[in-house]
């Protein structure tokens, strides 16, 4: 089934219907659904679909030749190999003279790296030939930095040649409910916490009865696709997967600052920073700074990819049980009882998405939402605020707390975030929000009825309008 990319598909089809030359750039992290979107768009359209290889220039030329021949002769065999990329592109030009033709280069960075001059060749033929044709060109890539700097960037030969670009993001916690609408909100939240809204991972979990059964059978199982995914992805993308694995494991274990990470991994700080930069570009890690502050000494690193975060949190420490096929027997003790703690950060992200995307009638117009941490000068200790919503203008802020606990939250939590707001110290007025998985005490609900705080449960952020 094809879900959740209706707007992108609508825009792509609208451009197709114009009948003019198009150069569409589609990019986003691996597994996010780029190729699925392109395949859906290309249905019933004459298409040359070339998936570039992480291989030599000649091997890519052979693959491109086969893709062209396959479009011309769907049932043919023994595709001829073009003598050069110029010959192959000339053939595409000829094919596009009398029809609206889609030409897809999937994983474009592989081709551009294998054949260094290809981007310049493409720029030349766009400018002098294809600009006045009916060709619909799609360049797709998973290397975020390459697509942003060497395709869309100012110094790229292709700069200014694209007619549209789509950065495909992971699904929000609400969008992904279409995959398994039968699940409870608690299981929907956990599914989001495991997959990060990546459609490929949702499908590979193969939920048939319960989410718990799917996890045991399709993740905590040495023969399953998802069990091997992090290692396979690192091997596919990186030359030294063992070092990157150590860095991710170190961060999963609690290290967050650059010097702490480099010390635990056993690398010089400058060398370690280069590896971290690659993981940032792949979207596996993220760099965080307290919201409303500039990057500096407070900058930390965290695992951004939710699937990697879940895998590194639960798989390595239970590897013996998984390998021996005993995980079902110890699931409740080794994994299930730790899920609420794991879900704390996931719930924070969900609440941030709620405020930015779905909440209506907020007291201020939000510019951004994030965490803040700093020093409470009165008590001389570090404090952290789960949610700070910054205004588009003015100096009123949203201050929020997110609690994923199996207990009701009381008035003491409101007192705490009021105190933390004083440490934050940037606003003339604060609007308080508390999000709770399990609801609130009567006393806190009475306080909310007086307008002092807005209270939202897990059910609320899935259903409230």
Could you write a compact summary of the structure shown?
With 465 residues, the protein is an alpha/beta fold. It contains 21 helices and twelve strands. The model has no long low-confidence stretch (mean pLDDT 95).
In words, what does this structure look like?
- By secondary structure, this protein is of the alpha/beta class.
- It folds into three domains: about 160 residues, Rossmann fold; about 120 residues, Winged helix-like DNA-binding domain superfamily/Winged helix DNA-binding domain (Arc Repressor Mutant, subunit A, Orthogonal Bundle); about 120 residues, Trna Endonuclease, Chain: A, domain 1 (3-Layer(aba) Sandwich).
- The chain contains 21 helices and twelve strands.
- Strands 2-3-4-1-5 form a five-stranded parallel β-sheet. The protein has a five-stranded mixed β-sheet with strand order 8-9-10-11-12, with helices on both faces.
- The longest helix has 20 residues.
- The chain is globular and about 75 Å long.
First and last CA, distance: 27 Å
Number of domains: 3
Mean pLDDT: 95
Just give the CATH class of the largest domain.
Alpha Beta
Portion in beta strands: 15-25%
Q: Within the largest sheet, what's the order of strands?
A: 2-3-4-1-5
What attributes characterize this protein structure?
21 helices; five-stranded mixed sheet; alpha/beta; five-stranded parallel sheet; Arc Repressor Mutant, subunit A; Trna Endonuclease, Chain: A, domain 1; Rossmann fold; 465 residues; globular
